């Protein structure tokens, strides 16, 4: 059975509207939502990027049943994992049993802001692995210290802890990241309906029964041509090659990279228009690839 969710896009939505959309998603029957965690939007046209943890507090008070996860938070540079541990613990208290923490290796777009060198993916994977170790350590409670290769935590204790730590879902776009997700995470998040990723994730015994979230992007309008135009205006980055998505540093750089992107190229990655069959086909492709949760 597949669960359908709603994607809350912080890059193009104000904080108040994000709370309003989450409430509406619950009212119409979505069981969960993912909310993006950015410092910058991808392009200036999107125009928003609120602090996700404040928005989560608002959603916690506006909803009663909707599960919510970050889709996804990068805990390696911009925010120290010890701070993410505290933030996620608070969110889990405010949404008992319905908050999960989505984590990934991030994008230069959001993580360069403190002047820290943007490391290669292999180093970012090591950083993520150690960050998750710190999260789980602090969620045990009590006074904790950690001195690792990348991070130091000294005499830290999170006093406001939920009865159970929030599940950690790990984002992956490649098989190495999927394997890492299986070893350190409680679930998988991916934007590609790629059966190989799920198989790699589940190859680990610890990944065998864990949930897999397949995030799809859609643009609804009365006519397909209208939807393509809207998608090209707001999400041209959907057609930007994957490596650039993690390496470019500013919205202006993404705008430059997307200048030659066509409506049809964007539409090849975004389901456009009112035809329900197209939307259902994409959901089906995720389901057939082994994903059991699909937010759009």
Key traits:
single chain, two-stranded antiparallel sheet, eight-stranded parallel β-sheet, alpha/beta, 296 residues, globular, 16% strand
Characterize the structure shown:
- It is a single chain.
- It is globular, with a radius of gyration of 19 Å.
- The strands form 3 sheets. It has an 8-stranded parallel β-sheet. It has a two-stranded antiparallel sheet with strand order 5-6. It has a two-stranded parallel sheet with strand order 10-11.
- Strand 1 (3-8), helix 1 (15-27) and strand 2 form a beta-alpha-beta unit.
- It has 12 helices and 12 strands.
- It has helices spanning 15-27, 52-62, 81-94, 108-111, 121-138, 175-184, 195-203, 224-234, 242-247, 251-257, 263-267, 276-288, and strands spanning 3-8, 32-35, 67-70, 99-103, 144-147, 152-156, 168-171, 187-190, 212-214, 218-219, 271-272, 293-295.
- The longest helix has 18 residues, at 121-138.
- The protein has 296 residues and is α/β, with parallel strands linked by helices.
- The model has no long low-confidence stretch (mean pLDDT 96).
List the helices and strands and how they pair.
Elements: E1 3-8, H1 15-27, E2 32-35, H2 52-62, E3 67-70, H3 81-94, E4 99-103, H4 108-111, H5 121-138, E5 144-147, E6 152-156, E7 168-171, H6 175-184, E8 187-190, H7 195-203, E9 212-214, E10 218-219, H8 224-234, H9 242-247, H10 251-257, H11 263-267, E11 271-272, H12 276-288, E12 293-295
Parallel strand pairs: 1-2, 1-12, 2-3, 3-4, 4-7, 7-8, 8-9, 10-11
Antiparallel strand pairs: 5-6
């Amino acid at each position: 059975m597949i669960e359908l969710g709603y994607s809350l896009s912080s890059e193009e939505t104000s904080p108040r509207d994000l709370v309003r959309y989450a409430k509406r998603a619950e009212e119409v029957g979505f069981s969960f939502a993912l909310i993006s965690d950015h410092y910058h939007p991808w392009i200036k046209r999107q125009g928003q990027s609120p602090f996700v943890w404040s928005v989560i507090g608002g959603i916690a008070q506006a909803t009663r049943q909707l599960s919510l996860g970050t889709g996804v938070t990068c805990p390696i540079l911009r925010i120290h994992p010890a701070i993410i541990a505290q933030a996620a613990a608070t969110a889990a208290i405010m949404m008992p049993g319905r908050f999960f923490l989505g984590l990934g290796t991030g994008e230069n777009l959001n993580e360069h802001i403190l002047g820290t060198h943007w490391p290669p993916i292999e180093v970012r994977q090591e950083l993520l692995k150690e960050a998750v170790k710190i999260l789980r350590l602090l969620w045990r409670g009590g006074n904790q210290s950690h001195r690792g290769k990348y991070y130091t935590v000294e005499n830290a204790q999170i006093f406001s802890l939920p009865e159970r730590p929030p599940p950690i879902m790990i984002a992956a776009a490649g098989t190495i990241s999927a394997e890492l997700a299986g070893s350190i995470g409680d679930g998988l998040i991916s934007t590609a309906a790629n059966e190989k990723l799920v198989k790699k994730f589940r190859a680990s015994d610890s990944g065998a029964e864990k949930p897999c979230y397949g995030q799809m992007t859609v643009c609804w309008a009365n006519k397909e041509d209208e939807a393509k135009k809207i998608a090209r205006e707001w999400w041209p980055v959907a057609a930007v090659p994957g490596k650039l998505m993690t390496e470019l540093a500013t919205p202006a750089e993404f705008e430059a990279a997307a200048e030659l992107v066509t409506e049809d190229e964007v539409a090849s990655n975004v389901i456009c228009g009112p035809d329900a069959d197209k939307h259902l086909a994409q959901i089906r492709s995720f389901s057939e690839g082994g994903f059991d949760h699909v937010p759009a």
